[in-house]
Inverse folding.
């Protein structure tokens, strides 16, 4: 994490298949035991799009293609570790089968409704998924303080 | 700038009026004497959308409304000072008249064609403007390694 008074940069990836989203059950804090969209931090010298593909391959063993940017989420309190700016991509699977990686106990495919209604969800990922539901209807891009219509 | 091996975060803002883009003639290095889209760095604890509005007000004296995110540009060589991830917003003017601020000698309203053909342009802002031209036709979002159609 960045201790030097600049925001850190992360990527999160929305992957939907057969009306379900790929989610990770976090095995580490923050939000241990909660569901989250897969993602991780961007390294210096790494393009954000490459970080998204790398994280998905590392965490889930999936090769993905990036379809669109849903939005950029940067509310300073969205991550208890510090100020993290997350670029959220929408992706589709090119190849691979989901297997658990270093950062997650397990994966689940859940519908948006099930995710929102029934489970503990990490960070601001409920807001992100609500924005994604809006995106499916009318595209557009989103950010932390933008209200979904 | 960030010396501690994390990418820095910046915002740039595309503002079009009467078929012209608002550009700044840079009075500082890097790219002193070149044209650029207005923008600047995001502070820790500041949302990217707030940074975009603040930078425009500081640099140009314009109050803006954010319309969409064009893309996120993060090629590690795009800024000679280090790895800068830039979130590019498309905006429209709410109020104000353009006046020069701290970071720019002067402003110009230039057509996209004039910008691309005739002038020195800073950073990867030619690529950004080409993506914006594509966005005007068919929307979508863009990143450094994505090819415009």
């Amino acid at each position: 994490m960045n201790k030097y008074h600049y925001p850190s940069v992360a990527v999160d990836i929305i992957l939907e298949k057969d009306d379900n989203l790929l989610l990770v059950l976090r095995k580490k804090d923050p939000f241990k035991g909660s569901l989250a969209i897969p993602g991780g931090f961007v390294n210096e010298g790494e393009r954000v799009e490459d970080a998204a593909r790398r994280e998905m391959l590392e965490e889930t063993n999936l090769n993905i293609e990036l379809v669109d940017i849903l939005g950029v989420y940067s509310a300073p309190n969205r991550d208890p570790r510090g100020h993290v700016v997350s670029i959220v991509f929408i992706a589709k699977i090119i190849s691979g089968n989901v297997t658990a990686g270093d950062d997650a106990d397990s994966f689940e495919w859940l519908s948006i409704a099930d995710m929102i209604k029934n489970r503990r969800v990490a960070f601001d990922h409920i807001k992100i998924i609500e924005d994604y539901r809006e995106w499916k209807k009318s595209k557009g891009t989103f950010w932390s303080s933008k209200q979904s219509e």
Summary: The two ends of chain A are 34 Å apart (CA to CA). The longest helix of chain A spans residues 125-138.
